[in-house]
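Hey, can you fold this one?
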Amino acid sequence: MKAVPIRLRRYSLLVSFLFCVSNGIVLAQDGNTPDSTAGDTPMVKIETEAGDIIVALYRDLAPISVNNFMAYVDSSYFDDGVFFRTVRDNNQPKNPVKIDVIQGRAMQDHVNAFPSISIERTKDTGLAHTDGVISMARSGPDTATSHFFICVGDQPELDFGGERNADGQGFAAFGTVIAGMDVVKKIHQMPANNQTLTPPVRIISIMQIE
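Sure. Predicted structure:
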């Protein structure tokens, strides 16, 4: 499958988002449960104590991952979750395959609230782990639950066939940041003990905005 031109798609989504904001179309939620079945590219706002991150989710390309993520969003299980991990060049000395990401999860009591999901390999979705892409964190294949990460820079070793994970299956990319990469980069450079952010960055909420 041909790789999706994510940067072009991200630009188009950002233009649409800014148009909606300027015309009052994108509104805050009114307290009702968001309809996570509407549209192939739902957008969510990750509100953190470090700032907001706007993410477009590619349900048409990675439906299992998006529907899983939205199940946690719709249940408010990301409220009071955290970005707890930063991986950068200076804190992975024993790993010959370097990556740059930040990793978040749902609140502690609901980290594994739903069954783990099947991995959607990048060779099947056509997505790639480029700068700003959001993806499901996992240990073995088909173990992802609420943990997710955001790429800082292009991370091809996280795609199918990449060498970051010994099984070669890669990770399930399912969306991309369209606004707030400055916040992602700020979190990425925050103080850490090895790869553990000290303190972690609180996720105030994640909600659907369109």
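The mean pLDDT is 87. Let me know if you want another pass with a different chain boundary.
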